[in-house]
Amino acid sequence: MRLLLCEDEKRMAQALCELLKQERYEVDHFSNGLDGLSALESGIYDIAILDVMLPGLSGYEIAKRARKKGVTLPILMLTAKSEHS
């Protein structure tokens, strides 16, 4: 299974890539939203893992644009930010 990981925080990206590769996933990592969207549109991925806050385009915007172009793969959203009410 081939995954697209879009995460701009270097240590988080390294940890996720290492963990996923140990589980025998093929992982392509991108650190900004524009590169992530371009890669996602190639159609070679089985799943995408997107950080919510990215330079260029947010994870939400990547997902929105990908869906408009007919990309139907599962998309998981990540965030390290918390909200307090």
Q: How does this structure look, described?
A:
It is a single chain. The chain is α/β, with parallel strands linked by helices. The chain has a single domain (2-78), classed as Response regulator (Rossmann fold). 36% of the residues lie in helices and 22% in strands. The protein contains three helices and four strands; from the N terminus they run E-H-E-H-E-H-E. It has a four-stranded parallel sheet, with helices on both faces. Helix 2 (33-40) runs parallel beside helix 3 (59-68). The chain is globular and about 30 Å long. It starts with a strand and ends in a 7-residue tail after the last strand. The mean pLDDT is 94. Keywords: DNA-binding, Phosphoprotein, Transcription, Transcription regulation, Two-component regulatory system.
Give descriptors for this structure.
85 residues; Rossmann fold; 4-stranded parallel sheet
In terms of topology, how is this protein built?
Blueprint: E1 2-6, H1 10-22, E2 26-30, H2 33-40, E3 47-51, H3 59-68, E4 75-78
Parallel strand pairs: 1-2, 1-3, 3-4
Helix pairs in contact: 2-3
The portion of residues assigned to helices is 25-40%
Low-confidence stretches: none
Q: Describe the global form.
A: globular
Instruction: Provide the β-strand percentage band.
Output: 15-25%
Spatially, the strands of the biggest sheet line up as 2-1-3-4
Q: What letter string, H or E per element, gives the SSE order?
A: EHEHEHE
CATH class, named: Alpha Beta
